[in-house]
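Tutorial handout. Part one gives the primary structure; part two gives the three-dimensional structure as tokens.
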Amino acid sequence: MVYGANHPTAKKLQSEVDELQSQVDGQKKAILNSMRASYAAAAARETLMAAELKGTGQEMSKVARYSALKKEVEANVDLYNSLYGKIKEAGINASFQNSAIRIADAARPGLKPVFPRLELNLVLALLFSTVLAAGAALVSDSLDKTVRDPELVARLLHTPVIGSLPLVKNWRAGLRLIPLTGNGNGNSVALARVDDDAPATPYREAVRTLRNSIFLVDFDRRVQSLLITSASPGEGKSTVAAHLAVAHAAQRQRTLLIDGDLRRPSLHKRFQVPGAMGLSTVLLSGMPWRDAVLTLAGAPQLDILPAGPPSHRAAGLLGQSLSQLLDEAATEYDLVVLDAAPLLGFADPLEMAAAVDGVVVVTRAGQTTRKAVASVLAALARLRANTLGIVLNEVRQDTSESYSYYSNYAKYYGARSKRAVKGG
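Part two.
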């Protein structure tokens, strides 16, 4: 049987259903509220439990640290007790004396130190310094290529050293030139004279020794013409030529000094004589050479032929003219001293070397290299010139041992002067 919606039975049943649905909804709400309350309570308990757990962890950390500190304290106490016991034991042992040990002698410092050994060190220092100085001297000597020692020069260059001239501050102090006033007649104008009465000096004695070494050795071959040259400029060849000519003239020997350095003449300045006419004038103009010769007042045995005006053209005209001049001068003079230009790099000194009877090479001690002197000697050997020897000029105490000889001159003449004063 089917009831309609408005049937009382249907309405009754519908009201029951609605009531049941209302009860179900109420139960749902009640259950939901109950679950919410339970969740809130559980969350609150969880928060409390987390707080309690945190506090418990801190307490456990403190307990663990406490335990560690306690163990450390206990270890320190054990160490202290052990050390204290050992100290006590050592004190007790120290209170006992061993009768088998006694002090035989008190410790004393030594009378002299064992180290360093001063005497041995001094001997070793002297030995090493001597070896070092000898080695330095050998090295320095092997590196030095200049002419210094006469024996070494003669051995290496196979040419004798015929003279050594000491270093002087002013060469005029050795030549003693005294200027005069007034003029002579003709071309023999003399503006200076040589003072032969000047006191002897080491330089003058060295020049005289050089003269004797040249003219008193070889009697078989007489030297009438002498060339003075050098390897390079500035080695003192003109000074040596001037002093050598003066020394030879002082022996009452007729001497002619010719300035053959036609590029850089200097003898007229050294003797303070005119240089307007000379060897270059003779070569270029053909004038007689005797007209250009100058005589020094006070030294009648010494004549000078200046170089004249410097001329490169005149240097190329030497050749046969010089040989003729020397031959003519040999009939009037006992010796002709020819001052030439440096031999290395110039042609005219070679022509002069071939024309004269002997050649002297001037070197500067400690300055001229052995290689340069060897080149000069080789060039003279090729010309078959008569090389008489080498002169060491400007010898100093630090360049050659022969310097010590000159100090003896000063001592000797000084002592003789004092005796003369006392005798007077």
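Part three, for discussion. Strands lie at 161-166, 177-179, 192-194, 225-230, 255-259, 294-296, 299-305, 335-339, 358-364, 387-395. The chain has 13 helices and ten strands.
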